[in-house]
Amino acid sequence: MAFTSIIAHRIQRLQPTQSAQLQLRTNVFDSNGKLDELGYELKVNFIRKGGKFYGRFSAETVEFPFSSWLKECREERLSFESFTHKAMQHFANALEKTETILDACVFFLIEKIEAGELLYVFVVEHTNAIYLDGELAIGDSRFLNSSQFGLAAKINMQDWNAGESVTYVAILRERGEKDLSDAFTDFIGFSDKHDVKSDTVEFLKIVDNFTESLDEGTAKLTRNKVVDYCLEQNKAGKSVVIKDLSNSLSEELKTYEPDHFSRYVASTQDHIKAEFIPDTSQVRSYARISGRNDSLSMSFDADCLGNNIHYDAASDSLIIKNLPPALKARLLKHLSSQ
Questions:
Q1: Element (H, E) at 17
Q2: Contact between 261 and 245 (Cβ < 8 Å)
Q3: DSSP letter string over 136-200?
Q4: In whole angstroms, how large is the CA radius of gyration of the chain?
Q5: Which of 32, 47, 178, 332 is the most buried (most CB within 10 A)?
Q6: When comparing pLDDT for 120 and 333, which is higher?
Q7: Claim: this prediction has a pTM higher than 0.70
């Protein structure tokens, strides 16, 4: 990992009737350990946050010019600093169309990885805190809240340039702040939200069909390995590559040829998706069945259904066998005390 360029600007709008004020930094920061640490914290927290949207840039570059300026920057017709200055002015204009107030720093970071370059944009606010100094006296401090930000974007510039991906922009929107989120979305020029949930559901159906012809033990191991792989990729901020998953299944289970699973996937799809972004809620629910109401909370491995756990739809009831010892002990203790 290497952050090659980091710059930050400040945007303030303290009253809905006021214009947004910008404080623009002239040059990128000099590289140092603290700066790299901040960049890493922002990146990791972005990856960990759920509820992100995936899509691409709007084709309406006159109304949403962020991508045009970024292209000029990559072609070295516009400096990175100038690109961010233009982008910040556009953000201020988008913010002024709402009644939203904001006082935050906007970080632009370019990360160079083996596969290409990524651009991150984070809207980060300061947080007040109280601390004890060396004399155990109370003091006030302010720090950048690198974990609680609600607005951010990641652009995979390699995928953008290739022109084949429809999910090269990932965006995080502030929950409960629609106007602010819309202003940020317009600022980035995000468009064509992609339905990663449908992609994941379709993929998991293929996994089910693939494991139907396997013996029970191998089928269960395969499903578990698929779930683990998808969750690990999501945790690392990466998409699921079918070919890599197929190789991983071959290495870990020693049952398939390296391209066995990928060939099966290709045979089931008219339009082969070589990779997709996993929806973690769908992946987790595939591995575990769970639910709750005001008085009951339950979760169990999906493989238990039909084995130790049976559902009777007519009576809307579950029959559970082979209870966990701790649960059984609690039940017996509770019954004996009544």
A1: none
A2: yes
A3: S-EEEEEEE-SSS--EEEEEEHHHHHHT--S--EEEE--TT-HHHHHHHHHHHTEEEEE-HHHHH
A4: 25
A5: 47
A6: 120
A7: yes
